[in-house]
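Schema walk-through. Below, the input block comes first and the output block second. Nothing else is stored per chain. Lengths vary across the set, and this one has 222 residues.
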Amino acid sequence: MLDEFQDIIRWGDDTLKRIRTIIQSQKRVCYVLAGSATTIMRNLVYDRRSPFYRQLVEIPVKKLSEQTVKKFLKKRFATARIHPDSSQIDRITTYCGGYPDYVQRLGMELYLAAGQGGSINEERIDKAYEDMVLSLDGEFENYFAALSPLEREILLALATGSIQPSQVAREVRKPIFNISKTLTTLMNYGVIERPMKAQYKIADPVFADWLNRRFKPMQEEA
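--- output ---
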């Protein structure tokens, strides 16, 4: 299994052709090429210029549904003899945004805080979420620093409430046609989503929250 395959794609067609040759030479091996940049991964399969054109089976993996997260949380908490009520389960589910990693992280924070057979409440859930965001600070910082200056400006605008391209353009003080390509690039890599026409949002709600907390005070002071 090759994870985050969109990073390998950046190495160019020669690398992809070499990988294709290796895969074709092995008869009893199944390869999984996984990536979070959904548009780029689809192009790997359906773009005629791709060395893997029509040679792979696309299996989209979406975020977990709310019902799936709630069912999982109830089951896992029950094994630790912790029984949160429905409003508390809803609160945890909202914080996680359907991301399995956050479900596990936040669930573990709550388990460690409550202990076997313990109890949780809204205050404890909020504290566990704060601890989770704090634990991700270094990871988010490195990820954000690796983006281009314009990509960072656009994400900050989205995190602080601008959702339409015209609003983002005003926030970053650039003509709208200058940001359109960057918006498309960020969407291709799965960093942002377009829930409806002419509206964008950051795909990862925890990352968006971190950006808002980390940089909004600086913007207000400026």
